[in-house]
Fold this protein.
Amino acid sequence: MEKKLYSISAIYSTPNDIVAAAKAVKDAGYTKFDVHTPYPIHGLDGAMGLKETKLGFVTLFAGILGAVGMISFASWVAIVDYPQVIGGKPYWSWPAFVPVTYEIAVLLAVLLTVGAMIVFFFKFPNTSHPLHDTPYMKKVSADRFGVAIQAADEMFDEKKVRELLKSTGGEVEAIYYSEEFLIFKPQLFDPKFILLLIGVSLATSAGGYLYFNKVLYLPPFDWMVEQPRFDVQSRTDYFEDGHSMRLPVQGTVARGFIPYPYVLGAKADSIGKFLINPLLNSKVTLELGKKKYLTYCSPCHGNFGNGDSRLNGQFPNPPTLHSDKIRNWPDGAIFHTITVGQNVMPAYQYQISRDERWAVVKYVRTLQRAYNAKESDLR
Ligand code: HEC
């Protein structure tokens, strides 16, 4: 095994020494040298004359690539692949692409920066370096400081380098490496390593498969997702029509829901006889009725039911609610009118719940009594 000279190194024992040595090496004009310290030392970059890293440009490029790529992809999806009108907006609504573009730009910048560092700066797949496993590396990764000038430097002359390093007060030492340990020798393709990779991947796949498909389903594990059932819109051969669900039997009523059997056009006063107000007279009922009446009825019927609409002729004015006709109507007739509407008056069953409608009826009755108070009411 032939040994080759990699570099001449020098070891120092204080940070000040190494900064001075780095400056001396730089001033002597060497470029292929490196300094190793067990921890970061202030001012060393300046002393070594290091230029700013170019990694930032890789990141910038990767970020721009990510952003442009994502905008193009999103535009292609939005215009060509799956055009959809959402809220009446144009297909190419770029503000919607901003979050995902930002995310992809950051993601790609990060991944490509790390990738570039590993491949270009650390020369992957090479995994070794002549300095590895040398007495020099042992010292500088513990409590010493070292500088190493490479034999590959254009100005390299072993005698001169040794003199220079000695003059800075370091313990000079040569570092050799063998061809076998050469940089760029891709140890990744060692058949033993490949066999190991294959073995590990087979073992992890088999282990993962067994664990997630068998072990997790042994008793006592019980998964509710794993049960005989039909999923939404799934097909079955059990029923002739292929549907996995049946329609409810005709006339089925949902729990808590009372269907309203009368339709618009039916005579309010005759239907009214079949509907009884389930609410009792109480402060709570009247307050609820007042609130709903003022919200839903007063715009057209006026605050007191006189038919004095606030809509300035934009809607036909309704008749007064204090007519003999309405006063003699049964409660159910007013309820029916609110529920399904009457001629131009719209239905209110969707805005006002059943109990609220009955409360409104109570409030209309209260207004009517207030306008037609009897002698006895005044006492
Ligand atoms: C959009 C305006 C409007 C609103 C809101 C409205 N109504 Fe009416 N209402 C009318 C009109 C107009 C008529 C007359 C319909 C017709 O031509 O038969 C009417 C008729 C009525 C009648 C029958 C009157 C009669 O003499 O035939 C009653 C009772 C009634 N409304 C109660 C209410 C109640 C209670 C509310 C609140 C839940 C309400 N209305 C909300 C416009 C409205």
